[in-house]
UniProtKB/TrEMBL annotation, chain A:
Protein name: GMC family oxidoreductase
Segments forming domain Glucose-methanol-choline oxidoreductase N-terminal: 214-330
InterPro entries listed in its UniProt record: FAD/NAD-bd_sf, GMC_OxRdtase_N, GMC_OxRtase_C
Recorded superkingdom: Bacteria
Lipid biosynthesis in keyword set: no
Species assigned in the record: Ureibacillus suwonensis
Family membership noted in the UniProt record: Belongs to the GMC oxidoreductase family.
Upper classification of the organism: Bacteria, Bacillati, Bacillota, Bacilli, Bacillales
Any Pfam family the entry gives: GMC_oxred_N
Matching PANTHER family: LONG-CHAIN-ALCOHOL OXIDASE
TrEMBL record, chain B:
Transmembrane helix as UniProt keyword: yes
This protein's name: Gluconate 2-dehydrogenase subunit 3 family protein
Coiled coil stretches, renumbered: none
Keywords: Membrane, Transmembrane, Transmembrane helix
InterPro entries tied to this protein: Gluconate_2DH_su3 (IPR027056), TAT_signal (IPR006311), TAT_signal_bac_arc (IPR019546)
Keyword flag ATP-binding: no
Record-annotated membrane-spanning stretches: 12-30
Pfam families according to UniProt: Gluconate_2-dh3
């Protein structure tokens, strides 16, 4: 039998960015908060052997152990979903800090267009512009209403950047100036300007200079060591929950962090959650943690899985388009890119930082006219210098064999002479892209795995073809001697790594008929359950999601505080 | 260059609630000089390479992988190939551990072949796949040239490896192209992983690519126009026990 523990004000399921932010904000206000994390604790002191490409980038040391839990995947309803047995397309986080420890730090705001995408698209192009199967909808909040939460998150982590000419407007300047502009980025700037585009430095959570945040936490400037993605930052220069929000929560004395605590069910009665059930993964003992409010703050995919397992909210049915839990699963559309090989230039490409880059928004959102185009939205186009680690990076000019003498010669010749301009395409929702529970495969505790049904559509192929043209033009202007452009897109394939930007499934909106959450990230059907995170995105923009995830958590913190004071649905 | 400790001191680091200084033991200067780690000259002592022994392969299996890896990453005017970089020992050691047994992979059934978009769906682990793959390389050498794989000319070995790459060789339980892709990626890992894993001997893989390995900071050179060659360091330089 599960052991029932003392009731707390707030229990949080998962201690990554959203759990960390809720823990900090609510414990500062005096609420008692318990944070449950299924992985282990970790601190900066554990990040001393990080510059190990094999262990962290190719053996996935920081990622969730797939032998205990994974997802299943199929491209469409007719296929049999099969488990993701090895890592590929995306990487699931683990341990305190979650996926927030192994990210690149690219910290973009979504566009005002994103928050009202349905309304604004219909206004400009008429409703027949939206394909019949595309379940596009507004977020239930406008950018102007949401801006202050971006500001809060960006100040907490000290984002470095400069004004985005065509990006979202800001009420305050960036907390710190942009990172250093390298010769490779300079080439991109010059080329983009010649093409009358609007380049700017990528907003970065890798600090450009020492910074003290409003909670009085100081962190040092980035050293450009070239180990961000898939690695923890041993300097704390890259913001993560361990070096920003979690210590704030711990310092209040109101926050208890419990590790090796795997939540298996949200318990509820008469339309309200009463607490959560978890298993201590070391002893296998079961516990019940009662709480006034439950924050579901794990990774987007697991948030949805917990709702389905706990039978909360109406599961989405792709055949009728009714129900909400699992709806509007989106991803990110990569594929548009131009790789340029330079004969007589070498760049210091071993050096870099995850968010050291230059980018532009001329072809993002609705910043360009889509009247004659067969797709909506677009992509942020960028060049990044993240550190070209040698196992992963063996680019060779087109036509080179993939092994043997010629491969060795060319991959070494161009090791520091290859640059890439890429486009991070928006991913828009379709009626038949969704999440539900797999009927066959189980995790180590006997619970069903989450099943992903997803593919790329004509929308994505058109986007990649158009954006691929733009990246190629920029690379030509940059003066590369050989260019390999990506302008085509096959079916979605779970094997090659693309991005850990899985979104949707427990989306926010303005009506319980079409969304799981209101704009406080509060469940319509369970007023004391809040679910900030990328699972709340009704679609995914042409940017990295973390800034928006962080901002949603600050919005939810405000909502939970309001709820604990007066109760009821906040919207 | 500043040491890591000086750097952190200089940055005036304070993180609320975290014992930041506690775990940082390094006083590693970001090595921007060109001095090599291995001493040369009169006082140079030859050390035994204890790493050159087998944890998983039989000696015959090892010889086949040693030869095949060399064809994938051969010695040339740039520098050593897989053989001299001890890549076959790297692969052997990797197979003996968690990677070889797939202990962090989802290994529950039922098993179905699946579509290419669904990834590897077999029940065999990498230890088993390498054993089957090596056996198939030997069989193919016998069939085509009536010799063992290791006795063949380089061009004959290439011909067989190409057939594997294209998936033209039948192996029970796994496709030859999948085995080949594992062999290729493991070879590149052995060339370029930190030498602590037993390959990339004396960091020669890194030197060929002018990759400096583990360094504390590139803040001084990140925005420089000229290309800076930095003598590599392994994680060994970070570890003090």
């Amino acid at each position: 039998m599960a052991k029932e523990l003392k009731k707390t004000d707030v229990v949080l399921v998962g201690m990554g960015w959203t759990g960390g932010i809720l823990a900090a904000e609510l414990s500062k206000k005096g609420y008692k908060v318990v944070g449950l994390e299924r992985g282990k604790n970790q601190t900066l002191a554990d990040f001393q052997m990080m510059h190990d490409e094999l262990r962290f980038a190719h053996r996935f040391e920081m990622m969730q152990d797939l032998s205990t839990e994974t997802v299943t995947f199929r491209n469409n309803l007719k296929m049999r979903a099969l488990p993701m047995r090895q890592y590929g397309s995306f990487l699931l986080g683990n341990n305190v800090g979650g996926a927030g420890t192994h990210w690149n730090g690219q910290t973009f705001r979504f566009l005002p267009y994103d928050f009202e995408i349905y309304t604004k698209t219909v206004e400009r192009y008429g409703k027949f512009k939206i394909p019949e199967e595309m379940t596009l909808q507004d977020w239930g909040i406008t950018y102007d209403e949401f801006e202050k939460y971006y500001d809060q998150f960006e100040k907490a982590i000290g984002v470095s950047g400069d004004e985005a000419p065509l990006g979202a407007p800001r009420s305050n300047p960036f907390p710190t100036p942009p990172m250093k502009k390298t010769p490779a980025l300079e080439l991109f700037f010059e080329a983009a300007k010649k093409l009358n585009l609007h380049p700017y430095m990528m907003p970065s959570a890798n600090l450009s200079e020492n910074y003290t945040n409003p909670d009085n936490i100081s962190r040092p400037a980035c050293q450009y060591c070239g180990f961000c993605e898939r690695f923890g930052c041993e300097y704390a220069a890259k913001a993560d929950p361990l070096n920003t929000v979690i210590p704030v929560a711990l310092n209040t004395g109101n926050f208890e962090l419990r590790t090796h605590a795997n939540v298996v069910e949200i318990l509820h009665q008469d339309g309200k959650a009463v607490g959560v059930k978890y298993i201590d993964t070391i002893t296998r003992e079961e516990y019940i943690q009662p709480a006034e409010v439950v924050g579901i703050t794990s990774y987007a995919l697991n948030n949805v899985r917990l709702l389905l397992i706990s039978k909360m909210g109406k599961p989405y049915d792709p055949n009728t388009g009714t129900g909400v839990v699992g709806k509007n699963y989106c991803y990110q559309t990569f594929g548009a890119s131009a790789q340029g090989f330079f004969e007589n230039k070498q760049f210091n490409l071993y050096a870099g930082a995850g968010a050291l880059g230059a980018c532009l928004d001329d072809f993002n959102g609705d910043n360009f006219d889509h009247s004659d185009l067969n797709f909506l939205h677009g992509a942020n186009i960028s060049i990044t210098q993240t550190g070209r680690r040698p196992i992963a990076n063996n680019a060779t000019p087109p036509g080179t064999p993939s092994w043997g003498a010629e491969f060795k010669k060319q991959s070494i010749k161009y090791a520091n002479s290859v640059l890439s301009v890429g486009a991070q395409g928006a991913s828009l929702p379709y009626r038949h892209h969704y999440l539900d529970l797999d009927p066959t495969y189980k995790d180590a505790f006997g619970l069903p795995l989450l099943r992903i049904t997803f593919d790329f559509e004509e929308q994505d192929r058109q986007l990649v073809a158009y954006l691929g043209e733009q990246t190629e033009k920029i690379m030509k202007e940059m003066g590369a001697d050989i260019i390999q452009a990506g302008k085509t897109l096959g079916p979605y394939n779970i094997v090659p790594y693309q991005s850990t930007h899985n979104t949707g499934g427990a989306i926010m909106g303005s009506s319980p008929e079409t969304s799981v959450l209101n704009n406080y990230l509060q469940m319509w059907d369970f007023e004391n359950v809040f679910i900030p995170g990328a699972s709340a995105f009704p679609h995914n923009s042409g940017y990295n999601p973390t800034d928006t995830v962080g901002a949603l958590a600050y919005r939810a913190a405000e909502g939970i505080d309001l709820y604990l004071q007066k109760g009821g649905l906040l919207v | 260059m500043v040491s890591r400790r000086e750097f952190l001191k200089g940055a005036g680091l304070a993180i609320g609630g975290m014992a930041l200084g506690g775990g940082i033991v390094g006083t590693i200067a970001a090595n921007m000089s060109s001095s090599k780690e291995t001493p040369k000259g009169d006082h140079h002592v030859e050390t035994t390479e204890y790493n050159k022994a087998l944890m998983f392969f039989t000696p015959t299996e090892h010889a086949v992988i040693d030869a095949a890896a060399e064809r994938i990453f051969p010695k040339d005017e740039n520098g050593p190939g897989a053989k001299e970089l001890l890549v076959s020992y790297f692969i052997d050691h990797q197979l003996a551990g968690a990677w070889g047994t797939g202990s962090k992979e989802y290994r529950q059934g039922p098993f179905y072949p699946g579509e290419p978009t669904q990834g590897y769906q077999g029940h065999l682990n990498k230890q088993q796949i390498f054993r089957l793959g090596i056996e198939a390389l030997q069989n193919e050498a016998k069939k085509r040239f009536n010799q063992s794989f290791t006795s063949l000319e380089g061009s004959q070995q290439d011909e067989i490896l190409q057939a594997f790459e294209k998936g033209e060789v039948e192996i029970k339980g796994v496709s030859s192209s999948y085995f080949f892709s594992l062999l290729r990626s493991a070879t590149l890992e052995g060339v370029y992983a930190d030498p602590l894993y037993g390959g990339n001997r004396n960091m020669e893989g890194w030197r060929m690519k002018k990759f400096p390995g583990h360094q504390m900071s590139f803040a001084d050179i990140i925005d420089k126009d000229e290309f800076v060659v930095i003598e590599p360091q392994s994680l060994h330089s970070q570890h003090h026990s």
